[in-house]
Amino acid sequence: MPTMVHAGIYSSTRHYLEAIAAVGTDDTQTVRQQMADTPINDIFAKNGYIREDGRMVHDMYLVEVKTPEESADADDLFRVVRTIPAEEAFRPLSESVCPLVTG
Questions:
Q1: Taking a C-beta distance cutoff of 8 angstroms, is the pair 93, 101 a contact?
Q2: Which of 22, 5, 98 is nearest to 55 (CA)?
Q3: What whole-number distance in Å separates Cα of residue 12 and Cα of residue 103?
Q4: pTM, whole model, 2 decimals?
Q5: Number of folded domains in the chain?
Q6: Torsion of CA 96, 97, 102, 103, to 10 degrees
Q7: What is the pLDDT of residues 63-98, one digit of tens each?
Q8: Range of the domain at 35
Q9: Which class for 44: exposed (0-12), middle (13-18), buried (19 or more C-beta within 10 A)?
């Protein structure tokens, strides 16, 4: 079964390739701007976006491991207990030390 790492790589690659298709070039700055301008809602990320400091923020999930009796099959391992909104899950932009936002 694919892991969250696999899903994250798939998500980021797809977002990048869709940005290239949308702008018709692979120019780095043009593609980066398109990626930042396009919300991310896919199998990996909900309510995702790329901030000015380059960090991609998205909703995160607190999960609980299911007991063997609760699992429907070998891949049914977790139950979502709580969705943590993107703004709560990541350090605020105001605390970023990235040169893209700190000058």
A1: yes
A2: 98
A3: 26
A4: 0.83
A5: 1
A6: -150
A7: 999 999 999 999 899 999 999 999 999 999 999 999
A8: 4-102
A9: buried
